[in-house]
Design a protein that fits this description.
Elements: H1 3-25, H2 28-43, H3 53-77, H4 96-106, H5 108-115, H6 119-130, H7 135-142, H8 146-163, H9 171-187, E1 197-206, E2 218-219, H10 221-235, E3 240-246, E4 249-256, E5 259-268, E6 274-280, H11 283-286
Parallel strand pairs: 1-6
Antiparallel strand pairs: 1-2, 3-4, 4-5, 5-6
Helix pairs in contact: 1-2, 1-3, 2-3, 3-7, 6-7, 6-8, 7-8, 9-10
C-alpha cells in the first residue's frame, strides 16, 4: 500500500477506534489522545509485515488505552467530588437496532459500571460484546491465554447483567420522564414525577472542584425528590434547558448566555423507571461537547 492508502485505511478505522477508546476511558479527550497515539504508531509501522491492519489497529489502540487508564486511575483517586464520565452528544444514523445498541453501550450508567471492572475485564468485555472481536484475538491483544480471556468476559458480563445497566427504554418513555423531571424542577413540586422513579434512585453531580456541585451522591427517592424540588427549583430557573441525545439517551443541556454550563443525563431500568440522574458541571468535561462519537 502507498502512504496515501495507509492514511485512508486509518481514517476508515478511526470512528471505531474512537468509540472503543471512549468506552474504555470514559473521556473523549483521553480517547482522542489514544487514537492519535495509535495513528503515530501506525504511521511508523512496517505495513508490509501487518497481515490484518484492522486487528493491528484495534490491538494498538486497546493497549494504549490500558496504559492511559492506569494513569487516569491515579488521578481519579484524588478527584474532587464525584467523578462522572465525560458526556458526549450522540446520534445514530441507522435503524432502531443501531440506536438501541448505541444507547445500551454508551450510557452514563454503563460507563460507570465499567469503572468497577478491572482494566482487562473492561477491555475484554468491550472488544467481545460490543465490537465482536473473537476470544483468540482479544487474548493476543491483552497478552493472556484464551481461557483467561473467556473468564474475564464472563465475569464482566455477569456484573453488567446483574446491574441491568444495558436496559434500553423506548424514546417515548424517555420523553415522558424528561418532561416530568423538567416540570418538577420548574414548579418545585414532585407531582407525577415521584411515581416514575425507582426506590433506590441515585443523583450524582460532577463539578471537578472547578464549580459548585453536590459533594456526595444522593440515594433514595425521598432524598432525590427533595433535592430537585427544594434546590434545583431555586438554582436552575434562569437556565435554558435544551433536550439532547446524550450518550445514546435523552437528556438536557443547561445553557446560560449561549454557553452550555451543564449536562443532565439519566439511566432507567427495564420497567421504564428512572434509576439515575447525572449532572455534569465540570467545565473541562463540557469543552468538547459538540464533538460526536456514534460507533
Amino acid at each position: 500500500m502507498t502512504p496515501h492508502d495507509d492514511a485512508v485505511l486509518f481514517e476508515q478505522a478511526r470512528p471505531n477506534l474512537l468509540g472503543l477508546a471512549y468506552r474504555i476511558l470514559g473521556s473523549h479527550a483521553d480517547a482522542e489522545d489514544a487514537v492519535q497515539d495509535t495513528f503515530l504508531k501506525w504511521r511508523d509501522a512496517d505495513h508490509a509485515a501487518i497481515e490484518n491492519p484492522g486487528a493491528w489497529l484495534t490491538t494498538a489502540c486497546t493497549r494504549r488505552c490500558l496504559d492511559l487508564l492506569r494513569s487516569a486511575h491515579k488521578t481519579r483517586v484524588s478527584y474532587v467530588g464525584t467523578w462522572l464520565p465525560e458526556p458526549i452528544l450522540t446520534t445514530a444514523d441507522g435503524d432502531f437496532e443501531d440506536a438501541s445498541t448505541l444507547a445500551s453501550s454508551m450510557s452514563t450508567a454503563f460507563l460507570l459500571m465499567l469503572e468497577r471492572l478491572t482494566p482487562k475485564e473492561r477491555a475484554a468485555y468491550l472488544l467481545h460484546e460490543i465490537f465482536d472481536v473473537d476470544y483468540s484475538e482479544i487474548a493476543r491483544t491483552l497478552e493472556i491465554q484464551e481461557a483467561a480471556c473467556r473468564k474475564l468476559v464472563s465475569r464482566a458480563r455477569d456484573n453488567i447483567q446483574q446491574s441491568q445497566v444495558r436496559s434500553v427504554v423506548p424514546m417515548r418513555r424517555q420523553e415522558q420522564l424528561l418532561a416530568a423531571f423538567e416540570q418538577a424542577v420548574a414548579t418545585g413540586s414532585a407531582g407525577p414525577f415521584a411515581n416514575m422513579l425507582s426506590e433506590d434512585i441515585r443523583l450524582s453531580a460532577d463539578g471537578g472542584g472547578k464549580v459548585a456541585a453536590l459533594g456526595e451522591v444522593l440515594e433514595g427517592k425521598a432524598l432525590v425528590l427533595d433535592f430537585i424540588t427544594d434546590k434545583l427549583h431555586l438554582w436552575w430557573p434562569n437556565y435554558r434547558k435544551v433536550p439532547a441525545t446524550i450518550n445514546g439517551n435523552l437528556g438536557l443541556l443547561l445553557q446560560q448566555e449561549g454557553a452550555t454550563v451543564g449536562v443532565v443525563s439519566f439511566s432507567h431500568d427495564a420497567e421504564g423507571r428512572m434509576t439515575g440522574i447525572y449532572v455534569m458541571r465540570n467545565p473541562d468535561k463540557l469543552a468538547r461537547l459538540d464533538e460526536t462519537v456514534i460507533h
